[in-house]
Design a protein that fits this description.
The strands form seven sheets. The protein has a seven-stranded mixed β-sheet. A five-stranded mixed β-sheet has the order 20-19-21-22-23, with helices on both faces. It has about 450 residues and is α+β, with helices and mostly antiparallel strands. β22 and β23 form a beta hairpin. α2 packs across α9. It is globular, with a radius of gyration of 26 Å. It contains 13 helices and 23 strands. The two termini are about 25 Å apart. Bound molecules: adenosine-5'-triphosphate. The site of adenosine-5'-triphosphate has 16 residues, from β10, β13, β16 and α9.
Amino acid sequence: PAKTMDELVSLCKRRGFIFQGSEIYGGMQGAYDYGPLGIELKNNLKAAWWRAMVYDRDDVEGLDAAIIQNKYVYKYSGHEDTFTDPMVDCHECKSRLRADHMKDIKVCDNCGSTNVTEPRDFNLMFKTNVGPMVNEESYTYLRPETAQGIFTNFKNVVDSTSRALPFGIAQIGKSFRNEITPRNFIFRVREFEQMELEFFCKPGEDEKWHQTWVDLRTQWWLDQGLEKENIEFEHVTGDDLAHYSKATVDILYKFPHGFEELEGIANRTDYDLGSHTKAQEEFGLSAKVKPNAHSTTKLAVRDLEENKMVVPFCIEPSAGLDRGLLAVLTEAYTEEELENGSSRTVLKLKPHLAPIKVAVLPLKKNKPEIVEAAKGIKNRLQKLGLGRILYENTGNVGKGYRRHDEVGTPICITVDFDTIEQEGAPVTVRHRDTMEQEVVNTADLPSFILNYFVN
Ligand code: ATP
């Protein structure tokens, strides 16, 4: 794994994974842009999540709700009142610090001065004006989590899919938080993506489902290549436990800057649906909610055994896509000493996450038959639908191997004189991790590649 953030930042920029946002204007703190390979890696990680959460199960539906929502969503969700971090001002260097877990911060992170204010609450939501009029009513917020769109669509999903408990709704999308101190590359940013599941169950079955989801989510991260020894769990307690949460387990990963939260799995009880439902008093809610004067819809389902309407409990595994990508990159980053005394950098990404699945390299740049054969192979493999297959004609296969090691391409195929001259049109298949090469006939390539990537 990577030892420092700097080596990751440098690889990401050099090879086109991640760039500083607005770089040509001096940058924008807490915003990063994903480059040609970053977007592939991100899409692959999202697809793996969606596959595991939606396609591989038959009790979860997908959703893509709007980022801009009615301001009442945030009034009743509790975000307007309580989505804050404690902030401290330094009188000396004028910087602002996020106090967070160390609420009694006494020394400025930035200049070391002890001349700092008492912590005060800072709301992390970005406020924005909607429409051409600017007045006291015309505001809303950019969503600070994707979850609220799931709760507000609860009835729509139930009615359109005829779901009964237990079932879940999954969503991937952008969230925005005006973090006081964004830092550590893409670990803490102001605009990021979340992959969230809200899993609804009967009260009383919530603790069992909470544990189930902690286990399933941990296994999923292992399947993305994270090593067990680099994962820890934190049972959130006391002041750090959100007011709506009965229990929260954070999955921590050993990032270059230390063990930090990768995903939180919370038992949110009936707080969310109970907050947004009409006729709150009918349901005997267990959570303490703000009286709702604006909701038009009851967010409840029929409990067939007891033949009454209940507001379900909700288990929420909430993962950061950007943090996930940083974890996967950290884990995959490898510096290797080779037998001949040289060294190489290799990204040992799981094949399903690799931004480029296969690179097809003609040995000779200017030999039309070789170039044609290579293009034909690229086109045939691209049709398999595995992701990006790259035809790359630089004429320097050795350099190509090194570059593809660095960006994690699991397989390189070299097309040479044998391919155009010999029966079966053999090509050389070179494996990233072992650097071993084998000869495969062109006609066998599609099934060879499919076998490799689909398991
Ligand atoms: P932290 O304590 O690190 O601020 P949090 O507990 O506020 O995180 P949640 O509200 O539980 O985070 O959000 C769920 C997930 O969303 C987090 O586990 C993380 O992966 C991701 N996430 C939250 N805030 C950010 C951010 N500012 N930048 C990148 N990812 C984030």
